[in-house]
Amino acid sequence: MSGQRHIIVGISGASGAAIGARIVERLAEQPQCAVHLVVSGAAARTLHAEVGPDSLARLRDLATHVHDVTDIGACIASGSFSAAGMIVAPCSIRTLSAIAWGQLDNLLVRAADVQLKERRRLILLVRESPLHLGHLRAMTQASEIGAIIAPPLPAFYLRPQSLDDVVEQIACRAINLLGVAGLRTNAREWDGSGDCNLRPLMK
Prior knowledge:
With 203 residues, this protein is of the alpha/beta class. The protein is 37% helix and 19% strand. It has a single domain (5-153), classed as 3-Layer(aba) Sandwich (Rossmann fold). Helix 6 links the parallel strand 5 (122-126) and strand 6. The longest helix has 15 residues, at 163-177. Its EC number is 2.5.1.129. It comes from Bradyrhizobium ontarionense. FMN binds at residues 13-15, 40, 92-95, 127.
């Protein structure tokens, strides 16, 4: 489809694979999005364990393009490829550190580095707790070079009723952080009155 916005979704090997899966599902619902999916080997194991044995195959079917994590010559590895941004969800500490210090040994990290050098949005849903000083320094370094660090924390003020509600809110928040005009979600958002009404995160 002409005029589609290319959005890259990387899923790395931290716990929380359902969030990355939900981001792919949400983006795939929007005809103006072309979803480029890259999944690390560790993430494939985590998807199997946390989401289900058929989850990776389902995400591959939903994505517009699926890239092998070892294919450093893929289109998303080039700055000349016009991507609208990238989300890494979840982002493992290993992936965070590789992005922070330019250790570009796989396509997921290379694609993330491209977003930074081209001054595009890179959203990292860093998933780890507790954090030691090395983790914090890696997050500082990634932030200083342009990444947005967005730990996948529940919005308790929205009073989630289920784990699915938590996953949905975090996934939609990550999509919102891309700042891409025209992307719409129907996630609950705080309205300032104490009530959490259903309305789009982006207009």
